[in-house]
Write a structure and sequence with these properties.
This protein has one domain: 3-Layer(aba) Sandwich (Rossmann fold), CATH 3.40.50. By secondary structure, the chain is of the alpha/beta class. Helix 5 crosses helix 7. The strands form two sheets. The protein has an eight-stranded mixed β-sheet with strand order 6-7-5-4-8-9-12-11, with helices on both faces. A four-stranded antiparallel β-sheet has the order 1-2-3-10, with no helix packed on it. It is globular and about 55 Å long.
Amino acid sequence: MYCVACGVKLKKDLFFLAKEMMYGFRENFKYFQCDKCECLQISHLPKDLSKFYPTDYYSYHEPNVSTNKIINFIKKKRAIYCIERKSLFGMFVSFTYGIPDWHKWFKLIDLKFSDKILDVGSGGGDLLFNMNIEGFSKLIGVDPYINEDIYYSDQLQIFKKNIYDIVDQFDFIMLNHSFEHMLNPLDVLKKLYSILSPQKYLLIRIPVIGTHAWRTYNVDWFSLDAPRHLHIQSLTSMNIMAEKSGFTLKNIVFDSSENQFWGSEQYKKNIPLYDERSYLINTEKSIFSKKEINQFKNDSKKLNINNDGDSAIFYLYKN
């Protein structure tokens, strides 16, 4: 067996056994780790991977957004400030109420409202729907696991297909925690390179192996998410694959959250993510106090500053 990132032969004795803990199936799955680039990859795919993506899987839901015209007007003004640095009202809203996460991701990219944008692994299109409200007008999502194509408007469509079916060119492509669910990551990057316009960015948000949460929790690490995550990349492996696929890795921004702590602590105590005792399901029944959760949030911010959070945004540039 060979590393999916750097291609070296994997050592048979360098492996870990991780349990499925999102739904509490608790089946064990073997993961091998590359001793050259640190990439972690699943040994064999389950016979029925769809079992681990039931219909209530969190990315499949339809967009839950406001239809209030006033609220949507405010969102549009805020987006104009974030993207174009125009609109005094948008600036006021941004500084008073904050900005959505995706505008934090876009800060390092010269994005335009007229850009043709692809979201790979879009689910039902929640993010793209919100972006459409803000004024983005050329939005495409792809996800092989949705039930059928979704046509929202001429400005926004979601297709039931994989990336190898795409032939169009895009000005910006993003993968928000979908890359780790995809087979053959190097081939994926090469395909994305071919459909991205020159002098444009590919944004990939993924969990990162070798960081504090992995060193602390090992196979109980929340973001290991066996067996859905087929591979977990390291900083080294992402650099290697970026170069092999033709990209320049321009920036890395760590964006981990407190779930790296409360999720991992739950798994360590044999509490699945969708258990009634889970912090995600019922904060009152969870094993954590508000003080502990606040500490997890503060610790996550510190880890991100020190480039040691358990997830990051990779900005890959096509020359």
